[in-house]
Amino acid sequence: MVSVMKIFALVFILFTHTKYLCADKPCAVRPIEKQSVVCVCNSTYCDDVIRNHPAYGTFVIYTSSQSGLRFKKSVGHWSDNLTSSKTTLYLDPSKQYQRIEGFGGSVTDSAAINWRSLSPVLQDYLIKSYFSENGLEYNMVRTPIGGSDFSVRPYAYNELPWGDARLTNFTFSPEDILYKIPMFKSIFKVAKTPIHIVATTWSPPPWMKTNQNYSGFSQLKPEYYQTYADYHLKFLEMYNAAGVPIWGITTTNEPINGIFGLAPFNSLGWTMREMGKWIEQNLGPTIRNSTFSNVKIITGDDQRLTIPYWFNVMLTYHPKALDYIDGLGVHYYTDKFVPPQIFDTVTLTHPEKFILATEACEGSFPWETQKVLLGSWNRAKSYIIDIFQDLNFNLVGWIDWNLCLDKKGGPNWASNYVDSPIIVDKDRQEFVKQPMFYAMGHFSKFVPRDSVRIEITEKQSFLPSSLHKTAFLTPRNTIVAIIYNDGSERTIDLQNGKRHAMLPLEAHSITTVEFSHTYR
Ligand SMILES: *[C@@H]1O[C@H](CO)[C@@H](O)[C@H](O)[C@H]1NC(C)=O
Ligand SMILES: *[C@@H]1O[C@H](CO)[C@@H](O)[C@H](O)[C@H]1NC(C)=O
Ligand SMILES: *[C@@H]1O[C@H](CO)[C@@H](O)[C@H](O)[C@H]1NC(C)=O
Ligand SMILES: *[C@@H]1O[C@H](CO)[C@@H](O)[C@H](O)[C@H]1NC(C)=O
Ligand SMILES: *[C@@H]1O[C@H](CO)[C@@H](O)[C@H](O)[C@H]1NC(C)=O
Predict the structure, then answer these.
(1) I want to staple 71 with a disulfide (CB 3.0 to 4.6 A). Which of 19, 46, 49, 429 is the partner?
(2) Each residue's pLDDT tens digit, 328-369
(3) Is it true that the peptide bond before 411 is cis, omega within 30 degrees of 0?
(4) Residues 456, 483 contacting (CB under 8 angstroms)
């Protein structure tokens, strides 16, 4: 009897799994006037999303839209028939480009403080929303080495004794112990793939700097070049001992800020020539000659416009520095003014080096008076368009800034408030997921590490296209295409080999479609 029951149960499970989609917990919608919607998570409810492995001959579609859809799931069937659609997108899996490292967000002091202000149940919901299999499946995190502006005070490690070149007092900050390391531990508990953490210094202790201050015009005093390299190694050792291994370091956050006095927060100015010298003579040998020799060294970590200069200047003055460098980091803030073609200056001349987007947020400009703009689809769209540009110009990943902020867009000791995909409301003990959260998920959840970008092209008769697109071959042996429709509702034809898929695209929506690669 028992075995017969078992067979029935098995058949039942098989039947339901092939025929129906796994149920997600839908968005608890809170409409925002003049904007799109936010999804509310409280102590008893939080939306999630499960990826369905596409059954043979089918494709699974996920859609989020300005009108309020969030990961709406449906299934279609491939057909031999030509569709009557005016637009066709052709996939060519034989044309392959860069390998993907991953997607993620940042564990700043502020993000971790906001996270800790929630009840344990909500803390768990927030981490699962980003990192679990029922969430966005983030696999990268960036974190400051010591403080950044997204801290409640300016600080660095080993601030005292003053002039302590041997760094005899390098130890955890209270922020590490109370907030950041617990957040990392919570992330590691739910993540199914290794989290690659990129760590970055904003400012070393003031005694290492020409202006002896955290912000303003400053450079590293030449007598502390080796100390600043050791400072990075000490951090790698300390975090590793705490169970938080670091995958990569960048060579200082936004180094031109301290040259031009651009930012009223923690910074350290570097000319590219001096940076080359420091990497060649101090940082490179120190890291490569340590037990952390595999840690990636990522230089740049500044806006798009600076990209061509790093390698050119280093090649001219300190060519050996390039031997130590694995890649370049790039920030988001001027992307609307600098086209992504600028990446070709590196990807074509140095194909062995990667470019990774290491920081992005909305609401950062002084003229953006609303720092947190609840429900903004425009801000989600800005993320989406930027990620398409970066991926289609061979970037290997995209890391968002603060994982969560408060209603004001902080805390931030320098009053540099900005937006975040998750806004925490400590008083109401809830958090809301902005449209930007879902924008990130349409990429991060479906394009796992080691996916390879493939060709997707559009055949269009005459109209200017309102479609943005990119596609990948994944290690799950599926093809994932992501499409943003900036126009009105339409149906397009997606063609793979001789097969056609009719894809319904909502107005102003992002769609991820996944299907088995072997089905032709
Ligand atoms: C939490 O959200 C759910 C879904 O929106 C709602 O039904 C429930 O009443 C909320 N609970 C609390 C305590 O606010
Ligand atoms: C393909 O076209 C044939 C002939 O016109 C039709 O019978 C069939 O239903 C179509 N299949 C699909 C999936 O549309
Ligand atoms: C070590 O650093 C801590 C924290 O900044 C400080 O309180 C302490 O005085 C320092 N120790 C020495 C010997 O300077
Ligand atoms: C550091 O700079 C800030 C802002 O420019 C200034 O208010 C502060 O007094 C300076 N601190 C020191 C120790 O010079
Ligand atoms: C590497 O470390 C060893 C042992 O600590 C030392 O002898 C050697 O000089 C170091 N090499 C460099 C390039 O720093």
Answers:
(1) 49
(2) 999 999 999 999 999 999 999 999 999 999 999 999 999 999
(3) yes
(4) no
Give the number of the atom of ligand 4 that is nearest the alpha carbon of residue 211. Answer: 14
Residues with CB under 6 A from ligand 3: 159-161, 169
- Ligand at minimal distance from the CA of 159 is 3
Active site residue 458: no
> How many residues appear in the chain?
520
DSSP-derived letter for residue 279 is I
**Do residues 403 and 107 make contact, with C-beta atoms less than 8 angstroms apart?**
yes
**pLDDT tens per residue across span 410-445:** 999 999 999 999 999 999 999 999 999 999 999 999
Q: Whose CA is closest to 77, among 515, 451, 463? A: 515
d(CA 160, ligand 3 centre) in Å: 5
Is pTM beyond 0.90? Reply is yes
Stretch (H or E) spanning 233: helix 225-241
Q: Report the C-alpha dihedral over residues 135, 140, 141, 145, rounded to 10 degrees.
A: 170
State how far the Cα of 38 lies from the Cα of 438, in Å rounded to an integer: 10
Tell whether ligand 2 has an atom less than 6 A from the beta carbon of residue 57: no
**Domains of the chain, each with CATH number or no CATH:** 55-98+452-516 (2.60.40.1180), 101-444 (3.20.20.80)
